[in-house]
Amino acid sequence: MTATALSLAGAVRSGERSAREVVQASLDAIAARDGEIHAFNTVTAERALAAADRVDARIAAGEDPGPLAGVPVALKDNLCTRGVATTCSSKILDGWDPPYDATVVSRLAGAGAIVVGKTNLDEFAMGSSTENSAFGPTRNPHDLTRVPGGSSGGSAAAVAAGFVPLSLGSDTGGSIRQPAALCGVVGVKPTYGRVSRYGLVAFASSLDQIGPFAATVADAAACYDAIAGWDRLDSTSITDPLERTSAALGRGVTGLRVGVVAEMTDERMGIAPDVLARTRAAADALASAGATVEEVSVPAAIYGLSAYYLIAPAEASSNLARFDGVRFGLRVDAPTTAEMQRATRTAGFGPEVKRRIMLGTYALSAGYYDAYYGKALKVRRLILRDFEAAYERFDVLLSPTSPTTAFELGTKTNDPLTMYLNDVCTIPSNLVGHPALSVPYGTGSDGLPVGVQVMGPALSESLLFQVAAALEGSLA
Amino acid sequence: MNTTSTSGWETVIGLEVHAELATRTKLFSSARNHFGSEPNTNIDPVSLGLPGSLPVLNRKAVELAIRVGLALHCEIRPSVFARKNYFYPDMPKDFQISQYDQPIDLGGWLELPTGKRIGITRAHLEEDTGKNTHVGGSGRIGGAEYSLIDYNRAGVPLLEIVSEPDIRSADEAKAYVEELRSILVAIGASDGKMEEGSLRVDCNVSVRRPGEPFGTRCEIKNVNSLRSLGRAVEYETRRQIDLIEAGEKIRQETRHWDEQAGRTTAGRSKENSEDYRYFPEPDLVPVVPEAAWIEEIRAALPLLPADRRHRLAAAAGLVHTDQPVIVAVQRGLDGLAIDAIDAGADATRVLTHVEHNLAVDGAELLTGAVLAELVGMEMGGALTATQAKTVLAELVEAARAGAQGDPAAIAKAKGFEAMDDSAIDGAIAEVIAASSDEWERFKVGDAKERGKLTGFFVGRIMKATKGKADGKVVTAKLNALADGG
Amino acid sequence: MPARISRDDVSHVARLALLELTDDELERYTEQLGAILEHATDVEALDLADVAPLSHPLPVQNVFRDDEPGDALDREEVLGQAPAAESGRFRVPAILGEEP
C-alpha cells in the first residue's frame, strides 16, 4: 500500500474507492508479507471489513464518514480494544479481551479509520528492539536481519512495509521515535497530556504518551489531529484548545530559530558518524530554507538516561502489580493466593519486565528512595530547566533520533545497559513532557534509514510538523 | 487472663476512624457507591483496576473531606495522592491510592460532651478495598478452602481521621467515636452506620504510669462496634499491664480483636510487608482547594453538636456538659427545647420531658409552641406530671400524623381536669382510713421511714383519683396532716 | 550513593514484587541491576542540593469529575474474563494472613 492516508480518505470520501476495497488491499498486503516481518500479533480481518462496510453505508447515506474515512490503521497491542485481545506481547495477559476501548481507539473510529490489527511490541513497551516480545521479534522491513527498533516496532514496521498508511504507538522513552527512525517512517510523541492515555496499558504513567506513525508528515499530522484533545477520563489530559496541525505544514521555516543540541551530536555520546552526518545535513537544509541554525548546549540532558532508568521502572513496578492472576489474564494455580500470584507473575513476565520491576521496586524501597528515585526527580527538574533555557533562544531543537541505524537481531539482548543507550536522545523529551518527532532523513552508510529528531516546548506540535514538512520537502 | 488491678496505670489511646463518604459514586470513577448491591455490579474498569484504566477524582468527595476538616477545626491544605504498594487480592490494582505525606485536613480538634478536647492529627482521602468471602473450613480466613471477591466496595471514598493519643479510657474512646459519628452525620459526610462498615475504627493502645513517657503501642483492628471498641480497649489495657508487671516488654504490632473470644490476637509480623514504597500517584494531579471554595463550604456547614450543646446550655441556664443538655443534642431535640424555652416554658421541665418522655420517633416533629403550652399547663397545676406525659405522647402521635395537637383539648378529652382540694382531701381521708397501721407508722416515722411510706400512700391515692391528683400536692398534704393533725 | 546492590537486596525486592528467582537468575539480575545502578551514579556530578523534585511534567492541579454515576460494566462479561469465578464473584485460592 503506497498511497497516503489522506489520498485514501479522499478517494473513499469521494466514492472513488470503497472502504471495503481499501481495507481488503491492506489485509491482502499483511497476508502476503507479515509472515516474515511479524508486525502483527492479531489481524482483525472480519471486524475490519464489517467496519469498512459501515463507512461505505454512511457514504451511501450521504453522511460525513470522517476525515480518515476508510483508512486502515494498526494499533500497538497495548491499546485496549473492546472484545479484541490486548496482549502487551506478554504471556500474562493470555486470554484477556478488554471490556472497553481506549479513548484513541474510539476517536480513530469516530474519524472513520478502520483498525486492521494489533501490532507487536517489546513486552509492556519495555525495550528498544521489539525482541522482548513473548510472541517473537518483529523484523525490519528494510532488512529482515535487523530489528525495527522498539518498543513500538510492530507499528513502525507495519507502516514501513506498506501494510497500513497509519498506526499508533506509545512512547515512554523513545518507543515511537526510535523505531520510526530505524524503519524510515515519521513518528510523533505529542506533548504529555495532549493525547488521552485512557486505555493505554501503562508502563510509566508520567512519561507515557500515545502518538502516530505515518509514511508522510501530512498523514502523521492528520492522525494526530484525529486523536489529540481533552478527555474527561484522563486527569492528566490537557484542556488547552487544539490547533489543527495539518494547517501548519506549508508555513516553511523562514526566520525560525533552530538549535542543534551539542550533547546529542557528540561522537563521545556514542552517536554514529553516518547518523551525525545526516543530522548535519538536516540542519543545513533548514538553514538553506531560511531558518537560523546554531548549536545549543542542554547540559543536563545527558543525565536523562540515568533519571529515566530509575523513574520509569519505579512507576512500572507499581503499574504492573495488578497482573496477579486474580481478575484477568493468566493464572498459574497454587494452593494459596499469594503462591498463585507469585507463580503467575513468575511465569507470565519475561526477563526484561522482571528486571525493570525489580529495579523500580529497589529504587522506591525503604532506605533507597532518596538516593535513587528522589534524586532522579531532581535531575528531571534540572533537565526541564535546561530545556526551558534553550527554548528562550530557540523555537525548536534538532538532534539525531537514534545513535545508530537498525542493528542486527540478537546483538544487544544480552546487555541491558547497551540496549538502554539507544534512547539517549529521545528520553529527555519524555522526562520534561515536551513534544518531539522523528522524520526520516536519508540513509546511513549501510543503506538503512536515518531519522532526525525535532523537539519543541510544550504544545508546539504545529511547529514540529512545520519543520518536519520542510525537512521532508528538502529531500524531494 | 488474670485480673491485675489497672490502678496506678494510665491507658493512652489514639484512634484511626475510616469513614465511608456519602457520595453517589466512587472516589476515582463513576461506578456507584452503594451498600448492599448484588456482588460485582457497581464496577467499571477503574474499580476493577483493569489495565489501561485511569482514576479521575470525585469533586464531591473532596468537598466532603473539606467539610469534615472544617468541622474538626483543621487547616485545609493542598494535598497530593500517593500510591501505597502491597499485594492483597481485594485491592484491584495491588496498590492503594491514598494521601500520604500531604493530607487535605491537618491539625484540628473535637470536643467531647464532657468538654474535653481530643486533638485531630490529620484526615486524608483514600480508596476502600473490595470484600473477600471465605468459603469452606470454618468460613474464617484461616481454614478457608478458597475465597470469593466482590469489588463493589473497591474505590469507595474513605476519609481516614486520625486522632492524637489524647484519649484515656474505653469510655472516652467510645464517646469520641460517638461524637465523631454525630458530626459526620450532621454535616452529611457519612451515614455513620457502623453495622454496614461505613465507620471503621482501628485503635492504638498503650499503657504507662501517669507522668511517664508513652509506652509501646499496639494497633487493634477489626473493631466493628462501639461495644467492641470498649471491650477491646479494656482487654488490651489489661493484657499490656499484665505483661509489663510480669517483667515482659510490649512488642509494637498489629492485633486483631476477636469479638467472640473477647480478646486480641497477634497479627502477622509486619517486617516484610511494611515497605509500602509510597510515591506520588502519577495519574492524578495535586488538589489545591481555592479559598473561595473553602469559604463557601464553611458557610454552608450546619451547627455542630458541640456548638449546639453550648447554645442549649446558654438558653436553659445550664452548663454544656450537663446530662440533659447532652441528651437533648444527642436526640436532635435541642432545637425543640430552645423553641419551647423561648416561648416561655420552664427550661428544667422542658429538658426533663426531652430526656425522659421524648425518646421516641416523631418527637422532633413537635413545635416549641405546643411543648411550651403543655409545660405551662403543668407548671400552673392544670396537669400532673403523669398526665403531662400522657398528653405529650398524644401530641407526638398527632405530630407523626402530620398535625400539631392541642394540649388543652387532649387533656380535656382524657378527663385530665385539675382536682379541687376538697376532692383530694376526701381521697386522702379514705385511703388513710383503710390503711391505719401504715398511717400510724408514717406519723411517728423519721424522714427515712416516711420516705418509704410516701410511695405507698401516693400510689393508693393516685389509684383512687384515677391519676388525676398531683403527686407533689398529695405528698405535701400527707406531711402536713401527719405533723399538724 | 549506597553500596552496590547485593544478592540479598535483589532477593528482597523479588519477594516484594512477588517474583520467584532461580539461583542463576538471582546471580544475573544482581549483576545487571548493579551495572545499571552504577551507570546512574553519573548524576553525582550534578549539584542537586537546592533542586526541588519534579515527579510529573504537567503543571496542572484540581482536576475533578462530577459525582454522577455512569454505566457499570457487565458482570458476566467481566467474570467471563476472570481465571475463576463463582456466585457472581472472583474466585481465588485460600488467602493466608490478614489484610495488611
Descriptive report:
The complex is a heterotrimer of chains A (476), B (485) and C (100). Chain A is an alpha/beta fold. Chain A has 2 domains: 5-248, Amidase signature (AS) enzymes (Alpha-Beta Complex); 250-306 and 371-475, Amidase signature (AS) enzymes (Alpha-Beta Complex), CATH 3.90.1300. Chain A has helices at 5-13, 19-37, 45-60, 103-110, 153-160, 177-183, 217-227, 273-288, 304-319, 337-348, 351-364, 370-393, 416-420, 427-432, 461-475; strands at 40-43, 72-76, 114-119, 166-171, 186-189, 209-214, 257-261, 292-296, 396-400, 436-443, 449-455. Chain A has an 11-stranded mixed sheet with strand order 1-3-2-4-6-5-10-11-9-7-8, with helices on both faces. In chain A, helix 4 links the parallel strand 2 and strand 3. The radius of gyration of chain A is 21 Å and the shape is globular. Chain B has 485 residues and is an alpha+beta fold. Chain B has helices at 59-71, 170-186, 226-245, 291-299, 305-316, 323-330, 334-342, 347-356, 368-379, 385-400, 407-413, 421-434, 436-444, 447-464, 471-484; strands spanning 10-20, 57-58, 75-76, 81-85, 95-99, 105-111, 117-127, 131-135, 146-150, 157-163, 199-208, 218-223, 253-258, 263-266, 279-280. Chain B has a 9-stranded mixed sheet with strand order 3-6-7-10-1-11-12-13-14, with helices on one face. Chain B has a 3-stranded antiparallel sheet with strand order 5-4-15, with no helix packed on it. A two-stranded antiparallel ribbon of chain B has the order 8-9. In chain B, strand 12, helix 3 (226-245) and strand 13 (253-258) form a beta-alpha-beta unit. In chain B, helix 5 packs across helix 6 (323-330), helix 7 crosses helix 9 and helix 12 packs across helix 14. Chain C has a domain at 7-45: Orthogonal Bundle (Histone, subunit A). Chain C is 33% helix and 9% strand. Chain C contains 3 helices and 3 strands; from the N terminus they run H-H-E-H-E-E. Chain C has helices at residues 7-16, 23-39, 75-80, and strands at 64-65, 85-86, 89-93. Chain C has a two-stranded antiparallel ribbon with strand order 2-3. In chain C, helix 1 crosses helix 2. Chain C is flat. The relative contact order of chain C is 0.08. The chains are: A alpha/beta (476), B alpha+beta (485), C alpha+beta (100). Chains A and C meet through helix 9, helix 10, helix 11, helix 12 and helix 13 of A and helix 1, helix 2 and strand 3 of C.
